[in-house]
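ping. complex inputs:
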Amino acid sequence: MIPLLRIELYKIFHRPRTYISFGIITAIALVIQLAMLADGKSFVGFALQAVSEQFDIKGNVLNGYLITYLILQTLLIHIPLLVALVAGDALAGEANIGTLRLLLTKPISRQGLVLVKFTASVIYAMLLLLWLAIVALGLSTLLFGTGDMINLKSDAFVMLLKDDILWRYLAAFAFAGLAMMCVAALALLLSVFADNSIGPIIGTMGIIIVLTIFSTLQLPIFDAISPYLFTTHMIGWKGFFDAPVPYDAIGRSALILLIYTFVFVAATIFVFNKKDILS
Amino acid sequence: MRRYMLSCVLVFISYCGNAQDASALFYKLRDKIQSVNDYIADVKIKIDVSFMKVPPLNGKLYFKSPDKMKLERKGGISILPKNSYNLTLNNLLPPGNVTVIDGGYDTVAHRRVHVVKVVPGNDTGDIVLTKICIDESNMLALHTETTTRDNGTINMDLQYGRYTGNALPDRVIFYINLKDYKLPKGVTMDYTGTDEDMMQKAKKGKTKKGRVQIDYLSYKINTGLTDDFFKEKKQ
Amino acid sequence: MPVIAETKELTKRFGDTLAVDKLSFSIEEGDIYGFLGENGAGKSTTIRMLLGLIYPSEGTVYIKGTAFNNRKRHLLQHIGAIIERPDMYGYLSGWDNLRMFASMSDKHIPNARLHEVLEIVGLKGRETDKVRAYSQGMKQRLGIAIAMVHNPDLLILDEPTNGLDPQGIAEMRKLIMQLSKEHGKTILISSHLLHEIEQVASKILVIHKGRKMVEGKAAQLLNPGETLIEAETLPCEDIAAKIAPTQWQQFVQNIDPAGITFKMHPGQVPALNKWLVENGVQVLELRSKHSLEAYFLSLTHDTATPDRAI
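pong. complex structure:
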């Protein structure tokens, strides 16, 4: 199992396309940071409009913590795509280039192969998040300094004290890891049905986009199903920036994500075990 | 016009009562309060507004008579209700000649207080009328109700302890009226999880009353703060 | 000789299509087993079933006497295979590809063995190049290196000469013979071209539409007592009348104005040639076709009957 995982990671990290994702994350983070350097004040003014009519808010509002939050808010929609790029390619990509049949003539179990592919995709997703933490959190706090953080929710204005923030980011990244694990499992499941990676990648994104719309739209018909959609729970990391932190809800969300992940991986193993390899 | 009529009525009533006492009381209180020209206070501010989730903020509150005020939080973000005259009694007491109306006696915090109503002499300010409940024995204002032109009515409770002599409160609680706050969910992409409470809360409308409590932990009085100190770069 | 791989009543259906139909055969140690059939005859499906890539609808594959299924994938340790195209990771070097697949083996394979197989397949010196820069022939060789690196008993080579130029085909043939003779490998080689199989195989199995047509020793199949002789001639209208009264009439299979097909012992061909020339038939060419080829060709016209004994 371990040698197989090493092989899988070796393959992932010897492929130039793997690094495109890291480049994209860096680019988006830098663009947001530069935009904030250039015109952050008017952005803050605009964002705080609803509150600043009634309250005087002074001090370093536009600090690294707030900018990290903005980057996460933007990027955590895109990172599933980047995770899908690798996880969706895991089985379908091998089928596409014809190496899947060669792999499966070796005395390794199909279930083992699925688990290794999943683990490798998750490791890749974690490294993406780690990189995101470095460029978003690291670089933003370097450029803008730290300070108290303002988090605007639709119905509340949340302020967190400077010394009470870093752990929230650690927890948020850990939670995002869980969400990305779920995305990787979904992409892997779609990957088992396809013989080229475009389908699973676009399929994963399509499902996430459609379900996110269901999760976000405030329509009664969607309200009934949204608690059961994994996309509703993928943004659970934001819970760590609420006061007080809704641990119960976050715990439940984490559990739901884990259940989805388990179901996706189990389904992948089931389908892959039954599948005739015709590629 | 309404204000003019109100003034006439109040003036008429005041002649019937012991206006002299009330006026003297008000000026005496104002003099006592204005004996503090400036101060620097360590404060702890609790903002209790339904839509504001702000932890208690520790900071330094700088004040200079008559209306300069600044909160400093060691590089942190400071949040104060917009019209900072709400925050200290000084700002609620109209300067110059005023019309004082005796409002009789009442009880505030188990203490007998003399109620005076003050109408500012010039009518350009935001304050229309201030009702002050004065503890005559200690010469302290325990409660005020200020009617403003644009900001509704502001109630303020004051509690005293260590700085009674300067009429500086240990704790001020004031109640403000607020407009509701709402951002589109599509913009903020809130996380509500499956927490029923959170989902309910996210839906229902908000009350529009707010309460701000300032605990003054210590004062440094008349330190000679200059006006320049209060000039800040615009955030 | 012990049997290395065997199938019994192997059947595969894809929906309504019957791809392989009750196919039974066995590969013995030391065989170069030629697996012959047209494109689409079911060769690849059969090979994939042997390797557990495709699950049989019915029937069983036995590897070294043990029934093979998804829970017995360790049996694949005894087999090395290249299937259809030799696809590998183009962004990795030949060495990386080889080492990667070698490490999927049950046992540890030392680097010395990797060098050894690269030497055998003739890729020594090119192993550090990226595979995407390899020619088709080099990819095939690397494929064989990957297939044999764990020293399996049976090598399965599915259409190993596909896409190779004539020189490459000749080299591949030489390599296959070398693997059999010098390294003692049992080899299953599939092709849709008879002449490729006939030059290397010790046993031949012909399948058509998923069914077994012929199976036997190559020597018997390829050197029968009689062979078909095609005489291509200039148009000659009365040739049938000329032949009819002669001894050659008994050998005639088919006559048309441009040529005659005889079935006879190859030793009689010079006499036939002499007679044709003496009787004014202008012969352009005499071609000998052994019966397996004729038989194999006839399959394409769908006239074959299964399980014909030769």
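The first strand of chain B starts at residue 38 and ends at 49.
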